[in-house]
Amino acid sequence: MPGTNVTIVATFKPATYTITVAPTEHGTVSAPATAAYGTEVNVTVGNARL
To answer: Where are the beta strands (DSSP E) in 1-50?
Structure first.
């Protein structure tokens, strides 16, 4: 062990996740391509005019 106090600093980055939206025949869905862990994600949904 060292003879004096030691300071250690760690920096963490949040994990980033990929968001995949499946195509649909009856409307549209859109979302951001990625989001960091803990981030609120807005998903937009629109229905097709029949």
So the answer is: 16-18, 27-30, 34-36, 44-47
